[in-house]
Amino acid sequence: LQGYVGFANLPNQVHRKSVKKGFNFTIMVVGESGLGKSTLVNTLFNAPLYPPKEYAPLTEESPKTVGIQLFSTDIEENGVRLKLNVVDTPGFGDFINNEDSWKPILKTIEGRFDAYLEQENRVNRSKITDTRVNACLYFIAPTGHSLKALDIEFMKRLHNKVNLIPVIAKSDTMTHEEIAAFKERILLDIAHHDIKIYHAQHYDSDDIETINETKDVMSKIPFAIVGSDKAIETPDGRHVRGRKYPWGVIEVDNEDHCDFVKLRQMLIRTHMEELKEFTNDIHYENYRTEKLLAMGY
Ligand code: GDP
Ligand code: MG
User: What are the residue boundaries of the Septin-type G domain, all occurrences included (predicted)?
Assistant: First the structure.
């Protein structure tokens, strides 16, 4: 199964033209160091992703500011080509003063809008490359308390630019009861601070199954996730991706253990097209309009 992502139903999900040409999907991961961003990315796509050749290899030394690292991979399944891009943001929240941690991230998102706008304005528009960020997974530390000032600041600065998807990192370090209470606190905080997170819709569906699926996905936000790129053996002899504890095994791909499967399903199968639509119709359109107004149009 190495490398298998499972977007088998994409021909129904994405327009025929983009299916043939192949298409881009770009996810950004943000959160403090050590919260499992890199591990989750590898777990999500079931393969290590590599930086594109034109970028310098990664170094182990810690950056002085929030860095931006790009990874991408081409996947083909059932005749559908997907170019999957990941924008990692090492260094976020790692400094004594993290006040401006959101700035380089905002700059990256806007820079990608600008690149798209520039291509749209060209005479020959047949080869537009879309590197706009379609979803931002924001990693919340599994503290069980409320959101930190840094979390709130980041989300408020970015919520009009990108589809924000909050996740509880390393949720295997909390009990189910703690997770349920923490989710509630987080959602209250988000509401209290008027933060707009991604809200999946099912407006063009009259299919009760699709509607229920979407409701089910939404009920899990913020997704409590566990990442692991290692196979381990369960007490009953199965080999699974998971994390081992003296008291047992947490299985990444078991929906009773964490929300990883739900998150992946939403990103890659059920809501990929919608995330792309919202990026274009809402976030990009707002940005473009503001920019044109500022330029005096
Ligand atoms: P990053 O700095 O956010 O990219 O975090 P990494 O992916 O490098 O992970 C940091 C450490 O946390 C590594 O030792 C991982 O094995 C571990 N880790 C990653 N995901 C999880 C998780 O879901 N649960 C637990 N308990 N540890 C994790
Ligand atoms: Mg990392």
Answer: 21-294
Q: For residues 123 and 119, what is the distance between their CA atoms, to the nearest angstrom?
A: 9
Q: What is the DSSP letter of 36?
A: S
ipTM more than 0.90?
yes
Count CB neighbours of 194 within 10 A: 8
44, pLDDT greater than 50: yes
Pocket mutation for ligand 1, best pick of 39, 62, 71 (most atoms within 8 Å of C-beta): 39
Give pLDDT tens digits for 218-241. Answer: 999 999 999 998 889 998 999 999
pLDDT of residue 269: 82
- Where do the DSSP E strands lie in 89-150? 135-140
Instruction: Tell me how far apart the alpha carbons of residues 172 and 2 are, in angstroms, rounded to a whole number.
Output: 24
Q: Determine contact, residues 138/167, Cβ cutoff 8 Å.
A: yes
For the Cβ of 170 lying below 6 angstroms from any atom of ligand 1, the answer is yes
With both helix axes pointing from N to C terminus, report the angle between 102-120 and 149-158 in degrees, rounded to the nearest 10: 10
Between 292 and 171, name the one with better pLDDT.
171
Q: What is the pLDDT of residue 50?
A: 53
Cα of 98 from ligand 1 centre, angstroms: 21
Q: What percent of the chain shows pLDDT beyond 90?
A: 57
- Classify burial at 158, counting beta carbons within 10 Å of its beta carbon; exposed 0-12, middle 13-18, buried 19 or more: buried
Which atom of ligand 1 lies closest to the CA of 173?
26
User: Quick one: pLDDT at residue 54?
Assistant: 42
From ligand 1's centre to the CA of 90, what distance in Å?
Answer: 13
